[in-house]
Structure formats: structure tokens, C-alpha cells
Amino acid sequence: MLLIAEEMGIGLGARFAGLAGPDPGPIFEDTAAHAKVYAAGRPTPMWSVPDTGDRAVFVGEARGMWLWLVLWPALAGTLLYEDMVLTDLRDAGSEIAHLPVGSLSSRFFA
What we know:
Structural class: mainly beta
């Protein structure tokens, strides 16, 4: 799973989602949210982005930022059926030293 939080119009999340433009487009107008995560202490609705090929992509908005969840393979999107709580690591204190860090995914270089 790749989590991207970005200001609107940047386009990094859309690039990993396989979209042509910088933002998700009109998917919010067509349907109710498909999932929710807890971000910034609030429930944040997430919409499934259609036609993303080999990945599951969900997008929502939290505190004026796009929140993208990109999951490989596409079936990994079922993870959002569970409650997911996201924490802003900018607010972390000494806990940050205890986070496991591994090697970079090859998906970053695709």
C-alpha cells in the first residue's frame, strides 16, 4: 500500500493511480463513498477510482489535501473493509525512531 497526501493540483497521487490529469476528476459526484479511513482524527470518506488496471486506488480529501491510497494487487483494496487509522508522522515524537523501515519498492521507480 502506498499512501500519498498532497495539495490539490500536484498530481503525484494521480500518477501512481494511472490517471492522466493531476486530480481524480468527477468521481465524487457519481456515487457515495466506497470506504472510510480515520485521518486527522476524523472519519474521511474514500472513493474507489475506476479503471486503474492492476491496482486498487481510493481517493478522498482531508484538511484540504488529497489523500490517495494505492494498493497492489487490485484485490488488496479489500483491506479498506477494516477500520484504518492514519497518523500524521509530523506530529510524532520519539515514536518515530521505532518505525520499521525497509528497502524502497520498485514501484517508486516505474
